Amino acid sequence: MLSEIDRVFVQDHLAHPRTSELSEVERQQYCETIKQLLKEKNAVLVAHYYTDPIVQALAEETGGCVADSLEMARFGRDHPARVLVVAGVRFMGETAKILTPDKTVVMPTLEATCSLDIGCPISEFSAFCDQHPDRTVVVYANTSAAVKARADWVVTSSCALNIVEHLMDEGKKLIWAPDKHLGDYVQRETGADMLLWQGSCIVHEEFKARGIQDLKAVYPDALVLVHPESPRAVIELADVVGSTSQLINAVKTRGEKRFIVATDQGIFYKMQKMAPDKALIIAPTAGEGATCRSCANCPWMAMNALQTVAETLKAGEAGEWLGNEVFVESELAVRAMLPLQRMLDFTATTS
Ligand code: 13P
Ligand code: SF4
Fold first, then answer.
1. If you placed Cys at 45, which of 16, 59, 152, 346 could pair as Cys (CB 3.0 to 4.6 Å)?
2. In the chain, which ranges are continuous DSSP H helix?
3. Of 156, 185, 204, 285, which is best to mutate to test ligand 2, by the most ligand atoms within 8 angstroms of its C-beta?
């Protein structure tokens, strides 16, 4: 049992960053190239907490940002750089483009999608909304621009509860999409009348309540931190449920010394940096059959390696961004801007 727990300690994860196939010299070379190209192109690197720790460190070092999806959107909108290099998944790049249509938005790969986005195709979703015209449509940021354009509100996990409470106070009945676990959590917390789309995150869905209980038995002093895309049985074991930035804040501010963390492993870079004296344990994902597919590593976030960031910036040397530039059709962008702007205005007054 103990050797198994040792295996999952975060220090192990940090010792094996995802660009591990590169030698130290190669890593340095990539970092120098990226720094140089960011300057030359008047570009800034905006990274999510789930990306490779090396990419996160580079974003910080070069004056970019590492953040949750809400803060990434705000940072990209407000930063003066002409080019935004968004290291995350596709919806984050699209959101950046919708908010700042005049900027060039590029991503290390446009293939980096999200199971929530994939699981909510616009034609089916729009038909679902048409069947319930009396309901206000609330969608999670992890959706396509077309789904956002069909919505009344966009939310992220850091503001979902507040926005749904606000809509409930206005007497609204809601459609919620796409994440059924987050929707179920918000519904239970607020008591709102919500019809849930049945999407899920392949990473968070794999956390196992039984495994967390076993860890708690070994470490009863540990605080359990859970991202609300996790299943209900996992959320019920949580001491803190929150967005990526809220979980990081819990590690920083809570007095406990040990934390069991149910979210993507990339987050440990920032958690450990904010609180170097705290012990972080990855919540188990494999069941008795050891069947985890993502194993607390979002496969799409992992596409943002040092190499792909460098290649993206180099592609721009030819005066075009080849297959890395994010475009959102302008009519769609104008419609998607409305629910996004509602979220940004709401959160500007509440946080
Ligand atoms: P945050 O909004 O908490 O950053 O989450 C985004 C995400 O994709 C979680 O899986
Ligand atoms: Fe999507 Fe889950 Fe990956 Fe987040 S962790 S980007 S919700 S698949």
1. 59
2. 2-8, 10-15, 24-40, 53-61, 69-78, 90-99, 115-118, 122-130, 145-149, 160-169, 180-190, 209-218, 232-235, 244-253, 268-274, 306-315, 330-350
3. 204
